[in-house]
């Protein structure tokens, strides 16, 4: 049943995945991920490769190569158990496929290993995974604006994501956070983001480490009246982040977003009514002037008498 559910989910998202995989970054990554397989299986190329197979067939994997591939496949499966988006699943597969290619090329020929490793380094330095560019109701803070925005209105609850552009976890979480902002954003509940990889002072003030080893990226913090109320992941006394999975269901449950949203909608209605009253007060009602009917009638009679005298 679980396998059927996963298959149906994949088929449902297939058009999105297909469009997403056609981006240049993923096309290039795909070719790099299957580089060793292509060389080992391509006739005319594989004939010149060395092999440890008993039958001497250079166009098929030997037992050591199969062992390396199986081991890294197991690691990918373990990593993908915590993946929450398609991007994370594909990213893990690409990453460990490249690691497998490095090991296999070095084992085959040190010159091919150095060439492939150099290619990976150049690719890492010049190509970045595409950032999420979809719809969202999120305000981006800087080190100069975050404090003022959080303290501007004590009735407004802020959910702020502390992230870094270089973090794969933050990149994968971007679409989830954007979906939450589209569902729950209102006048009394707002969503914000701040890049602590860029603003180091914000990282120190709000005690969110930007180090890859801290595992605090991304961090979600709720602020009410400018003061922190809750954060995930939590940090223990030694400064280490407690493991937590950033799924949409976990965030809704832990942050009690449904209840927060209902309370915030009441604030939104209150603000709307106050704005209407303020608008009406700026424009006082216009009184219609009554026409002086008697004076008009009197003027008409005088005109008739004048005409008769003539």
From TrEMBL:
SUPFAM superfamilies: Thioredoxin-like. It is found in: Mitochondrion membrane. GO terms for molecular function: disulfide oxidoreductase activity. Pfam families: Thioredoxin. Residues 280-310 are annotated as: Disordered. CDD domains: TMX2. GO terms for cellular component: mitochondrial membrane. Its main location: mitochondrion. The chain crosses the membrane at residues 25-43, 114-134. The keyword Signal applies. Residues 287-304 have a biased composition (Acidic residues). GO terms for biological process: brain development. Gene3D superfamilies: Glutaredoxin (3.40.30.10). Residues 114-269 form the Thioredoxin domain. Keywords: Membrane, Signal, Transmembrane, Transmembrane helix. It is a single-pass type I membrane protein. This is Thioredoxin-related transmembrane protein 2b. The gene is tmx2b.
